């Protein structure tokens, strides 16, 4: 369990997140991922990063059961700091980050891929933000980087997901491939980038972040404030308890 770092030839690094059964990350998992990204990006030998996951899906967000088991709000505060750190680490990684997404990409997973430079998805990949059903808010900042504004709002309010093919249509997914070709496709693209001059690519990443119209770190932090506010009302505790006992709601 954890985030595994595999250094491949030509300066490509593959980070694989593995938290069975569904890659719903606990507090420690988010910080481990952030640390892996930070250390990998700081290595001058790294030219491109592929972020992928083992198991049934790319990411199921935060570990709701860990938060629900905490009688106070300590775990909630900690996991929000962990998510912030991981999303920031993806965005500020000095080299391009390619997310290779299979299965479900939910909640915090949207924060990771939304802050990635490039997304390659398998044919079975779906993307959604079920935060409203969990009594939480957040990552609309990152969903807005994947879909148009009104689609984002509809997805956010309803909790519905979209497919990889839909994101391909919107232009936010670079390529959709069969599941068994996902890692190879992501690594091939990473190698293409890695063959460029490394200083130019690092400066390109820095310059692209510099011209972004939205400060994603500040925008997400603003969203988190409303999650804290909802928790003070008690509605979030109720939503988490319902999730723990009944599981996720089905999309209509």
Low-confidence stretches: none
Q: Structural class, judged by helices and strands?
A: alpha/beta
Total number of helices: 11
Strand content: 15-25%
- Helix percent reads 40-55%
* Main sheet properties: 6 strands, mixed
What's the average pLDDT? 95
Span from first to last CA?
34 Å
| Shape estimate | globular
Q: CATH architecture, please?
A: Alpha-Beta Complex
Report what the structure shows.
It comes from Saccharopolyspora hirsuta. InterPro entries: ClpP/crotonase-like_dom_sf (IPR029045), Enoyl-CoA_hydra/iso (IPR001753). Keywords: Lipid metabolism, Lyase. One of its GO terms (molecular function) is lyase activity. This is Enoyl-CoA hydratase family protein. Helix 1 runs parallel beside helix 3, helix 3 packs parallel to helix 4 (108-114) and helix 3 (74-92) packs antiparallel against helix 10 (216-233). It contains 11 helices and 9 strands. The chain is globular, with a radius of gyration of 17 Å. The protein has helices spanning 27-42, 64-68, 74-92, 108-114, 140-143, 149-158, 164-170, 182-194, 198-210, 216-233, 235-246, and strands at residues 2-7, 12-18, 48-53, 97-101, 104-106, 118-122, 126-128, 161-163, 175-177. By secondary structure, the chain is of the alpha/beta class. Helices cover 49% and strands 16% of the residues. It has a 6-stranded mixed beta sheet, with helices on both faces. Strands 5-7-8 form a 3-stranded mixed beta sheet. The protein has one domain (2-180, 197-210): Alpha-Beta Complex (2-enoyl-CoA Hydratase, Chain A, domain 1), CATH 3.90.226.10. The relative contact order is 0.15. Strand 1 (2-7) and strand 2 (12-18) form a beta hairpin.
